Amino acid sequence: KPLVFSGVQPTGNLHLGNYLGAIRKFVALQEEHDCLFCVVDMHSITAQLVHEDLKGQTRSIAAAFIASGIDPAKHIVFNQSSVPGHAELAWVFNCVARIGWMNRMTQFKDKAGKDREKASLGLLAYPSLMAADILLYRATHVPVGDDQKQHLELARDIAQKFNNDFSSRISDAGLGIDMMVGEEKVSGYFPLIEPLIGGPAPRVMSLRDGTKKMSKSDPSDLSRINMTDDSDTIAKKIRKAKTDPAPLPDTLEELEGRPEAQNLLGIYAALSDRTRMDVLAEYAGRQFSEFKPALVELAVEVLAPITSEMTRLMDDPGHIDAILKDGSARANVLAEKTMSDVREIIGFV
Ligand code: TYM
Question: Position of motif 'HIGH' region (predicted)?
Answer without folding.
Answer: 10-18
